Amino acid sequence: QVQLVESGGGLVQPGGSLRLSCAASGFSLESYTIGWFRQAPGKERERISCISSGRATYFEDSVKGRFSISRDNAKNSVDLQMNSLKPEDTAVYYCAAKKGPYLSCTSVLRSQKYDTWGQGTQVTVSS
């Protein structure tokens, strides 16, 4: 069964850090471009970051300089390191995967036309 599973969410104080992981089963992420999104209550889903199969990365302004994204092909996962977290980062975080040798991941991120989506993991930033 092809699926993505996010993990690593939780409750953290403002200024803290969390590391989210997007793990694949049933397929290898190595040839996929991966996007990270989040959705806060009452708001539309928001794109935040992506990484291409060639490891090119992109970050939205809302997270640039605070978040980083990386691949771990040995673990068949893509991680999102989140530092200097703010209350407005509170949301359910989702990863998504699309097969293809994209040099840049941004066009897929903006279209949100991915092959597979995870179920999400809750991140709450609160004191």
Characterize this entry briefly:
With 127 residues, this protein is mainly β.
Category by helix and strand content: mainly beta
Number of helices: 1
Radius of gyration using CA atoms only: 13 Å
Task: Report the mean per-residue pLDDT as an integer.
Answer: 96
Query: Which geometry do the CA atoms define?
Result: globular
Beta content: over 45%
Largest sheet: 7 strands, mixed
Report, as a whole number of angstroms, the end-to-end distance: 39 Å
Index terms:
127 residues, mainly beta, seven-stranded mixed sheet, four-stranded antiparallel sheet
Structure, described:
There is one protein chain. By secondary structure, this protein is mostly beta strands. 5% of the residues lie in helices and 48% in strands. It contains 1 helix and 11 strands. The strands form 2 sheets. Strands 2, 4, 5, 6, 9, 10 and 11 form a 7-stranded mixed beta sheet that branches. The chain has a 4-stranded antiparallel beta sheet with strand order 1-3-8-7, with no helix packed on it. β4 and β5 form a beta hairpin. The termini are far apart.
